[in-house]
Structure formats: structure tokens, C-alpha cells
Amino acid sequence: MDQITFCKVQGCRFPHKHTTSGHKCGIKGCKKFGHGQLEHYCTEKLNLLKQFHNETLPHNLRCTILNCPFAQHHTTDSHQCRKCKRFGHGVDDCIYNNLSNLDDNLLGNISKQEIYEFMNRILTDQNELANSFYIKLNTNIDDILYIKFDKYKNVTTCFITNHWDQYMRNTEDYQLSQKFINQITDFTDEFFKNPYDTKECPICRTQNYIKEIDNIFVDAECSICMTNKVELIFGKCKHACICKDCFEKI
Hints:
Blueprint: H1 37-40, H2 43-49, E1 96-98, H3 112-125, E2 133-138, E3 144-149, E4 155-160, H4 163-166, H5 172-180, E5 185-186, H6 188-192, E6 198-200, E7 207-209, E8 214-215, E9 232-233, E10 240-242, H7 244-249
Parallel strand pairs: 2-5
Antiparallel strand pairs: 1-4, 2-3, 3-4, 6-7, 8-9, 9-10
């Protein structure tokens, strides 16, 4: 049985899934609705399409995604998510989200406040950090939550269900998760460090809390590698004697 066509745009591949007003032009830089590439440069063809702009889909075919502003012009599987740009779901069901909108249960015993405080500390300490960085949380045995931060303090998330299956690298969700963290720094280990862990000063052997070790910039050589400049000062003994590379090794 032939499907009923609703879109009158010339060359439309899915005329049964949206109306003329629901068709988005594919010309780069246009992206307007109500015409296609063949009508884009032809005023006469554009004008002919205007007679169909008020047409809507039958009620039983309209998009059912919550708060869709153009439900009368396309079907559910033609709805494009604003976040991941895929079809068939809305922002509420997208694997991309904002941390503020995330269900607290996904974070386990970690609070959003802890995550925001960590972000602020890293952005303060890492003055040279130019791009985004992320942490990875295990929400349960199968699920992974990536939390990404940028220098503008935007905090976005990517939630992957049945993560172990994703290692087959043949699913769209897995590919999107890799794109989400591509070429940015992983600060997961830094996030889970205990602030009450200690490091021994190489000068006086005093045990200093990690949380009390601060950045410092002085024109002196690291006492261990004798190459890099001193970058850290121990909070308890007040010795400024080590670079960050050597600090990670002791």
C-alpha cells in the first residue's frame, strides 16, 4: 500500500514523515524550513510552496515527544534532538545532558556540589588549561557517566547504558561518547584522590596533606630533577622545592 505523501518539496526523500513546513533546506548556511535545495535558488518554486505551508499532519501521525514545538509538522521518528542531532528522541531522552538536570541517583554517593567544587579547583589551579577536561564515573556495573567541564564553567554529561557492549565499537552511543571526550584531558584520577593523603617533602621528610600543597612560581630548579622550575610549595613545612612532574612520581 502506497504511503500518503505530505511534503511537497521537490526531491524530498521522506515526504510521508513531515509536511512542507517541516522540511529543512540542506543548503549550507540556510537551514530554513519550508523548502529544499532545488527551491532555494528559485523564487518561483519558493512561492509555489507557500500554498502548502499551513498543512499539518493527521493527529495520529504527529510527533509525541514532550514539548515539541512543531509536533503537527513531523512524525516522532523525524524529530531531531537539539543536543546530539540524532532523530527519534528529544533532549530529555538524549545521552547528552547538563549536570544540573541529571538524576542524583546516577551519581551514587557523590554530590553535584563535590563535582562543581572540583571543577572550580581545577580551573583555578590549572592556569594553562585551555580546553575541556572530564571525569568518568561508574554509575553501576554496566553504566558509565562522563562529565565534561570547560573554561567557561559549562558542565555537560554523556551517559552510556550497557557500557561493556559498547566496547564492540559498533554502536552509535559509543561513537558519540568517544566524540564527547575526544582530545580532552582525563581528570578522573585527580577527582578521586583523597585530600587527606600525604606526600613527603624531599627536603625535610615532613608529611604534608595533598590538599595543602599549593602552586607557586619561582625562579628555582626542582630539587629532584634539577631541570624543571619549582611549581609547588608544601603547606606544612613551607618548602618550595619540586615541579609537578616529580611531585606525581614521589
